[in-house]
Amino acid sequence: MLEKQLTGHRVDRSICAWFWEHAISQGESFKLLPVIASPTHYLFQIVREGITFLACTQVEMPPLMGIEFLCRVADVLSDYLGGLNEDLIKDNFVIVYELLDEMIDNGFPLTTEPNILREMIAPPNIVSKVLSVVTGNSSNVSNTLPGATASCVPWRTTDLRHANNEVYVDLVEEMDAIISRDGILVKCEIFGEVQVNSRLSGLPDLTLSFANPSILNDVRFHPCVRFRPWESHQILSFVPPDGQFKLMSYRVKQLKNTPIYVKPQLSSDAGTCRISVLVGIRNDPGKTIDSVTVQFQLPSCVASADLASNHGTVNILTDKTCSWSIGRIPKDKAPSMTGTLVLETGLERLHVFPTFQVGFKIMGVALSGLQIDKLDLKNLPNRPHKGFRALTRAGEYEVREHLHHPGKSGIDLHHAWQEWGDSVILLTKKVEACTSSPRGVLDSKLIKLSIMT
């Protein structure tokens, strides 16, 4: 347990025990709840890479403020540490402390912009770790305050100079889909991000427009985006931070097509189950479909499995997870996996069947259909270089099987389990008042940090 109290009033640590008792007893359903009411507190939670970020308040407050702050903390830690897991947090707990000191001042969210935090606290590297061992000074905090903290654009460092002015825009999309064994599309939508890598001198002013912005839903912007041009003309007008950042996120609903199909067949009788899975291209996107994988969890009643494929490799892990790595789908044949599952003694037929999780990656195309029209740049000393890319990959892409017994109708069941991580970061706030601003300022009187392992 690593704990940090920022004000005199202490919140009892028993709230952690209450949370984990309910998380373990209720399982996946509890994990999906963003807002939880305990007997003494309101809890807000997000989960990143198996780590639960939990915010706690004793009075009512706008839940989106707490959730947004937790998302910002998770993004900053992931950016600094190069990922999120228990070992990284343990190895860099000093930096975690320092970041929270700058992000929160006496319970008030203060500096949450990654680019400014990087100037205040140096990210961990091998050199800094060696110097901390030699000198005994483990602090990475700068002695000078970044000039941008008092600027009207606090996300951008003042007086930036680059030898080559360049800006790159990436459309990164994830397709979430639920498909039946028969290929019927139950649900399909895309969650996308506009990611920008900006290396521009001075104080540039950028305008990005799309050819078809009407397809976008649930848009969410970086603080640098001016909302009025988007509201009136659906144009993104902004002064960018320096380096990489997420300009906006969006969702595109009710898509009608998916790039690949996965057709599983299961039939069981006399203590064995025959499985066959066929994979192929349903709608050719015009680009190569790469990194195709099919993964499913063998039911606990399966004693042994013998699986083989005509393309790619099939691996069965110790936790009964079957992973079929296909790579690129060949043009001359459809990849297929077949095999036999042997059930435990006493079972004649398989009554619980797996859900197939599909992965893929397509470079050079955004399957939502979103297209960038143009990018205009102002206030630059010379002509910059501009670049655009697109990437679509599978998100929660599931194919749900129907189990068939000879002479019996199909049964459609779905069962998916995910394990909770061993780590939790607890941020506790006693909120006295809240004020609204474009970035959402949280007025709180108590912050508590605990890392439980």
UniProtKB/TrEMBL annotation:
Biological process (GO) annotations held by this record are: intracellular protein transport; vesicle-mediated transport
Matching Pfam families: Adap_comp_sub (PF00928)
User: Which InterPro entries does UniProt cross-reference here?
Assistant: Adaptor_comp_med_subunit (IPR050431), AP2_Mu_C_sf (IPR036168), Clathrin_mu (IPR001392), Clathrin_mu_CS (IPR018240), Longin-like_dom_sf (IPR011012), MHD (IPR028565)
Give every MHD domain span.
164-400
Sorted alphabetically, the keyword list is: Membrane, Protein transport, Transport
Membrane-spanning intervals of the chain: none
Cellular localisation:
Endomembrane system
GO cellular component terms listed in the entry, alphabetical order: clathrin adaptor complex; endomembrane system
Q: Can you tell which superkingdom this protein's organism belongs to?
A: Eukaryota
Task: Assign the protein's first listed, main location to one coarse class.
Answer: membrane
Coiled-coil spans in chain: none
Instruction: Name the protein family.
Output: Belongs to the adaptor complexes medium subunit family.
User: Which named protein is this?
Assistant: MHD domain-containing protein
What is the protein's species of origin? Tetracentron sinense
